[in-house]
Structure formats: structure tokens, C-alpha cells
Fold this protein.
Amino acid sequence: MNTQVNVDRRLTVATTALLLIMVAFCFLFLPAVVQAAGAQGRERAGKEIVAAVCATCHTTGVDGAPKIGDSKAWAKLTSQSLTSLAEAALKGVRRMPPHGGNPDLTDTEISRAIAYMVNQSGGDWIEPVSKFESALERGGAEVVQTYCARCHQDGTAGAPRIGDRTAWLPRVKQGFELLVRSAIKGHGAMPSRGDATNLTDAEIRAAIAYMVNADSATKRR
Ligand code: HEC
Ligand code: HEC
């Protein structure tokens, strides 16, 4: 009987110790995980990456780097997919250093930088969205309040206003999917993805549906 109690007690002590160790581990490693996610959440747009890293060689064309704006050089490259160009840029190719010489860049940032250079050279590519952000998609109302309202609330620079059906309907008539493409690529004074590179296609779609359908106080009559 006594030994049984002792065994039980020993087991309880062992279990408690194990639990404490596990909790301690969580506190040790959680901040690192959160920090990594935070760093990934701040993936930059192609324009920024190119200015900070790629422009050194790709504006001058040093060592045969395809020059930004040289549509012939880039047209040849764009017969490949973005994935395969990104692979080359990540690994390095001849005089082009791996990651453009900056190991901190994520795969998405490299791909965005390539898409940006292609688009500055007569191309028509779309910068990919962050893999890390797309796990948590938001609804239309939230996306609009956070990213689109600063122009679409008051109609800045001719932006169709939220809930203003007279302004939206002629655009919707072209086809909803065309509107989505247009918002992803940018259209006149409307920046690509409303300047929020990390918005997913589904979030853009939800935001547009919200703006078209919202019964808003800003509605013009
Ligand atoms: C130190 C100079 C240098 C930097 C910095 C640099 N590149 Fe390059 N890059 C080159 C050179 C040189 C080539 C041509 C390589 C060849 O074909 O011989 C090249 C080629 C490429 C190609 C074509 C690869 C292929 O398959 O032919 C891509 C894509 C590319 N660079 C993307 C980038 C991106 C994105 C960045 C910034 C993140 C960057 N580069 C930064 C020098 C550079
Ligand atoms: C910096 C200001 C600005 C921001 C931010 C912005 N827009 Fe726009 N948007 C505009 C302007 C200006 C137009 C009108 C452009 C035109 O048709 O010439 C426009 C037009 C549009 C159109 C119509 C495009 C077409 O082809 O008719 C859609 C769809 C759209 N925006 C969606 C969005 C979404 C979704 C967001 C938020 C994720 C957003 N916009 C954020 C300024 C902005």
C-alpha cells in the first residue's frame, strides 16, 4: 500500500517536472517563432527590393545583367516562368550572385523583384502574394477599412466611392473578374492591390464586392 502511494507520488512529481520543462521550452522558443513570422509578414514589394538590392547591377547592366527597361533582354527571359527565373535568381546564375547577394530576401521578395523588373521592361506580370499572410484571409469590410477606404471613401483622384452604385455599375458591367484583375494590376491612379502587396486575390475580390454593394453614407444620389 505504502509503496503504491510512493510510486504515485513519484509519478506526480515526474509529470509536474515534465510539464514545467515543456512550459519553459514554449517560453524559450515561442518568441523566436513569433519573431520569424513577424519578419516574414513584412515581406517588401518588388520596387523596394529592386531599389535596395538589384538595381546596383540591373540598372547599369554590369557583367551582362539584363538592364531594367531593356525590353528585348527581358522578353527573352520571360519565355521562362516566374518560378524558374526565381529559382535561377535564388541559386545564382553565372555572374549573378545567389539571392542577388542578399541572403535575407525571401523567395517571395525575389519573385516580386523579378516581376517588378519585368514590368519596368515592357512586361505584364503580377507580383506574388506572401505565403505567410495568405493563411489568414480577411473579409471585405475589414480589407476595405484597412486598405481601400483612404481613397475610396472620399473618391480621392477619381476613385469610385464605397457604395456609390452609379460609379460602380458601369465598371461592374465589364465583368467582375476584369475588375478584380484591374485592381490586382493597378489601373490609372489606382495602385496595384491598393498598395497592399500582401492582400490575396480572394481578399481583393471580397473588398470589391463590399465596395460595390455597401449601403454607405457616402453614397451619392
Ligand atoms: C552583383 C550584381 C547583381 C545583383 C546585385 C543582382 N543581379 Fe541579377 N544578374 C546579374 C548578372 C550579371 C546577370 C546575368 C547572368 C548571366 O546570364 O550571365 C543577372 C541575371 C539575372 C536574372 C536572369 C537569370 C537567368 O535565368 O538568366 C534574374 C531573374 C535576376 N538577375 C534577378 C535579380 C534579382 C531579383 C536581384 C535582386 C534581388 C538581382 N538579380 C541582383 C547580376 C546581379
Ligand atoms: C491610393 C488610392 C487608392 C487606394 C489605396 C485604392 N484605390 Fe482603388 N482606385 C483608386 C482610383 C483613383 C481608382 C480609379 C482609377 C481609374 O479607373 O482610372 C480606383 C479604381 C478601383 C477599381 C476599379 C478599376 C476599374 O478597372 O474600373 C477597383 C476594382 C478598385 N479600385 C479596388 C480597390 C481595392 C480593392 C482597394 C483596396 C485593397 C483599393 N482599390 C485601394 C484609388 C485607390
Remarks:
- The chain has a mean pLDDT of 82.
- The CA atoms of residues 19 and 157 lie 59 Å apart.
- The pocket of heme C (ligand 2) is lined by residues 143, 147-148, 150-152, 156-160, 171, 179, 182-183, 187-191, 194-196, 199, 204, 207-208 (CB under 6 Å).
